[in-house]
Design brief:
Blueprint: E1 3-8, H1 16-29, E2 33-37, H2 41-46, E3 49-52, H3 79-92, E4 96-101, H4 103-114, E5 119-123, H5 139-160, E6 163-168, H6 175-183, E7 188-190, H7 198-210, E8 216-221, H8 227-238, E9 242-246, H9 258-276, E10 282-287, E11 290-295, H10 296-301, H11 308-317
Parallel strand pairs: 1-2, 1-4, 4-5, 5-10, 6-8, 6-9, 7-8
Antiparallel strand pairs: 2-3, 10-11
Bound molecules: 6-O-phosphono-beta-D-fructofuranose.
6-O-phosphono-beta-D-fructofuranose is lined by residues 11, 102, 125-127, 169-171, 222, 252.
Length: 319
């Protein structure tokens, strides 16, 4: 391949810039041209594409967000959108594309690969909900942000003898919740993957209250939701004054941690290597500290086991 494109798609994640940099530099080092495709698949449909040179990706690694912007592109779900994207690639001489995003973005990458434009996916999402990889770019930064914010909530909860019910992101996955919960000493962690009941939550708070603890953190994953209702019920059932906080999109921002920058650099480099070898319809990931790659359809059909052991540990040591 002589010319490739790179795009970010879906929700942004800290470390995406480091991946764009790695893709750009690795491709330039191999003598390939690199085109930056703006606002996800929309850029392919609208021809919003500009060349990236070695200096285009200087000073980006330490910044959150994505220098290529991002979007969730509805048009790309339909044949017409895919054909427009393919036509743009043919016009611009783009022979392969690196797609940085989550599951939805990989479906688009598989569809475009099937239409003759080889794509390689890099997992970039704070949710860590991609089964073929143990780790997704942005996850570590998001967890650290959530942890810092819950620590701050703990200060005020403690001062007022209150319960803080904190909703964290993760879409339908509880990885951010369970890790943030254990790291912040949450009394209860509520995730979609594990059974829970309001009675069990209230009983745990009441029992813990009798041991001399007067402030509580309950971390709830957005896949379960209803932090406001939960806080009201906890207050009513336990008598502990409660407040709800939804952390929201603040978890998606900020300077990426070293783990995210390193993973993004490795995955970006490896994705380019695959395209250089003429391989498409692949997604790269990390398993047991090694970089692996899978067929996109196979990757999308995989199921990720939940961290049940971690959840159990968190539960047993928080009282
Ligand atoms: O997938 C990343 C994520 O931040 C999820 O945790 C969350 O459910 C979703 O994106 C929010 O999407 P949007 O930015 O479109 O509101």
């Amino acid at each position: 391949m002589k010319k490739i494109g790179v795009l970010t798609s879906g929700g942004d994640a800290p470390g995406m810039n480091a991946a764009i940099r790695a893709v750009t530099r690795a491709a330039l080092a191999k003598g390939m041209e690199v085109m930056g495709i703006y606002r996800g698949y929309n850029g392919l449909i609208n021809g919003d594409i500009k060349p990236l040179n070695v200096r285009s990706v200087s000073d980006v690694m330490q910044h959150g967000g994505t220098m290529l912007y991002t979007a969730r592109c509805q048009e790309f779900r339909f044949e017409e959108g895919l054909q427009k994207a393919k036509a743009t690639c043919l016009e611009q001489g783009i022979e392969g594309i690196v797609v940085i995003g989550g599951d939805g973005s990989f479906r688009g990458a598989a569809d475009l690969s099937a239409r003759g434009i080889p794509c390689v996916g890099i997992p970039g999402t704070i949710d860590n909900d991609i089964a073929m990889t143990e780790y997704t770019i942005g996850y570590d930064t998001a967890m650290n942000t959530a942890m810092e914010l819950v620590d701050k909530l703990r200060d005020t909860s403690q001062s007022h003898d209150r319960c803080s019910v904190v909703e964290v992101m993760g879409r339908n996955a509880g990885y951010i919740a369970v890790n943030t919960g254990i790291a912040c000493g949450a009394t209860c962690i509520i995730v979609p993957e594990m059974p829970w009941s309001i009675d069990a939550v209230c009983n745990k708070i009441k029992n813990t209250h009798t041991t001399g603890k007067h402030h509580f953190i309950v971390v709830v994953s957005e896949g379960v939701g209803n932090a406001v209702e939960l806080a009201k019920t906890i207050e009513k059932e336990t008598g502990v004054e409660s407040r709800a906080t939804i952390l929201g999109h603040v978890q998606r921002g900020g300077s990426p941690t070293i783990r995210d920058r390193v993973a993004a650099s490795q995955l970006g480099y490896y994705a380019v290597q695959l395209l250089y070898e003429g391989k498409g319809n692949r997604v790269v990931g990390i398993q047991k500290n090694a970089i692996v790659d899978y067929d996109i359809q196979e990757a999308l059909s995989m199921k990720k086991p939940f961290e049940k052991e971690l959840y159990k540990i968190a539960d047993e040591i928080s009282f």
